[in-house]
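Ops channel
N.P.: pipeline sanity check, posting one input/output pair.
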């Protein structure tokens, strides 16, 4: 039987994996994952994410081995070398076809075009699939066939497509009648908070299952950082240990197949935001070159290294911002409400270029994902697709009072303030700051807001 090589990338799962599924239907499958270490550094991706990937791969191998499918774990420096390694493996294993699921950032697209061209010239059949979005890219267009630039109509159109073509996750392949043989293992493990982010597909599926028990409270709790009101599934989506299709389908099952309940659900909406930002990236590859989506938006950023450093360290003197940044630094993840607050603080109030913040998030987040991170930063800086209006500037004080009213979240992450009462914890007096060893605010909020409105308007 002819052999098929499946190239795993950001799709580290056995279930709902189109490339794996279709390869297994057409022959004996061998799998490979190749970590391009220096390329990943160039993309500023966090070590924590790499750690989660490596550990998830070891579990993926166990799952594949149960199906008698081998998984080789290899490393190289850059994408170019991946191409050479794939060619070698194909030759070495006597395979006649390559299968993989698409990735959309520009370097990945160029790499894949190169692989397709080179292997095609050698007579190797290259098969590409879409496994990263619940609906295929370009399925959701407006009546003129143009891409949407605004979320709400995109979501409406998404729902219309879904109604006519419901999504169904793909099953796992059947057990092969083959020997696993020796498997290459090149270690690229990294430390990360495994206590918070247990690796692997099973952990991801269990997380969604558990979250669905409380999904009806999501709308009311999702903005409160002191409670576990969101799914925390983003790191697993980022490495493809679970697909957005599986999440949406699980939610639909939770509602016994009642589509109206699915479409009205807030968690569903957030998953569609993820789809939207991916589609925006596919339609606007210039975004991967640090370009703003909205080229008319004003970009008035200044060099403010001191503010940037204080922000990164969680020492801005704004307790909610510092709590957010410390959550990021300590766990590799930050609550969505705080991502917006932290981003607007750095970009609009300190006037630091959103690209610096985007990069720091990418370097630190275990769920670092180019499309969502770039989308989030450009939304906050009002340069993005359906971005916030330029005058939307979240006040760290009122956001803190509103979303962390008892100061519980601040107390946990900024322990030097833990003894303050719920009123002063949001903005301690100079005396309280001195006593706690906590810095004075690095900016005057009112002044900074006024300056931002003048410059951005
Ligand atoms: C400045 C900024 C940077 C961000 N960077 C990233 C990033 O690098 N990676 C990332 O996955 N998300 C990013 N987000 C989006 C969002 O903050 C996270 O997806 C969310 O906090 C993850 O937690 P969760 O899994 O508990 O989300 P839930 O609230 O449970 O939502 C479920 C899923 O929906 C998707 N989702 C939710 N909100 C958004 C959103 N605003 N945009 C796109 N998708 C969304 C995510 O895949 C998320 O896992 C960013 C947002 C902002 C404002």
């Amino acid at each position: 039987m002819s052999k098929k090589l499946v190239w795993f990338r950001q799709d580290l799962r056995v279930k709902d994996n189109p490339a794996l599924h279709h390869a297994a239907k057409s022959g004996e499958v061998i799998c490979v994952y190749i970590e391009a270490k220096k390329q990943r550094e160039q993309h500023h991706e966090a070590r924590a994410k790499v750690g989660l990937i490596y550990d998830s791969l070891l579990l993926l191998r166990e799952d594949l081995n149960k199906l008698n499918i081998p998984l080789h774990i290899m490393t190289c420096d850059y994408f170019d070398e991946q191409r050479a390694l794939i060619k070698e493996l194909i030759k070495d294993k006597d395979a006649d076809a390559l299968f993989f699921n698409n990735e959309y950032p520009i370097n990945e697209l160029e790499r894949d075009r190169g692989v397709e061209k080179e292997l095609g010239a050698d007579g190797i059949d290259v098969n590409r699939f879409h496994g990263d979005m619940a609906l295929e890219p370009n399925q959701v267009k407006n009546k003129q066939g143009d891409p949407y630039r605004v979320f709400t109509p995109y979501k409406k159109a998404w729902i219309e497509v879904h109604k006519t073509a419901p999504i169904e996750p793909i099953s796992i392949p059947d057990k092969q009648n083959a020997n696993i043989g020796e498997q290459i293992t090149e270690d690229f493990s990294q430390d990360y908070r495994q206590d918070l982010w247990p690796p692997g597909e099973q952990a991801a599926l269990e997380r969604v299952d558990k979250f669905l028990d409380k999904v009806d409270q999501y709308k009311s709790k999702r903005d409160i950082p002191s409670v576990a009101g969101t799914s925390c599934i983003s790191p697993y989506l980022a490495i493809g240990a679970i697909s957005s299709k599986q999440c949406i389908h699980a939610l639909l099952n939770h509602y016994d197949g009642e589509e109206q309940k699915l479409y009205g659900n807030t968690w569903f909406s957030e998953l569609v935001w993820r789809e939207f930002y991916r589609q925006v990236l596919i339609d606007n590859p210039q975004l991967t070159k640090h370009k703003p989506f909205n080229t008319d938006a004003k970009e008035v950023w200044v060099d403010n290294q001191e503010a940037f450093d204080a922000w990164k360290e969680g020492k801005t003197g704004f307790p909610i911002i510092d709590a957010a940044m410390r959550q990021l630094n300590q766990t590799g993840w930050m609550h969505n409400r705080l991502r917006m607050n932290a981003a607007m603080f750095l970009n609009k109030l300190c006037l630091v270029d959103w690209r610096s913040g985007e990069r720091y998030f990418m370097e630190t987040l275990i769920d670092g994902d180019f499309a969502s991170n770039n989308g989030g930063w450009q939304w906050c800086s009002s340069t993005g697709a359906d971005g916030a209006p330029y005058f939307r500037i979240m006040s760290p004080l009122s956001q803190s009072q509103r979303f962390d009213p008892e100061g519980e979240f601040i107390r946990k992450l900024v322990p030097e303030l833990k003894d303050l009462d719920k009123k002063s914890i949001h903005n301690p007096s100079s005396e309280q700051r001195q006593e706690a060893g906590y810095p004075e605010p690095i900016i005057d909020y009112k002044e900074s807001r006024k300056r931002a409105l003048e410059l951005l308007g």
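N.P.: looks fine end to end. DSSP finds 21 helices and five strands in the chain.
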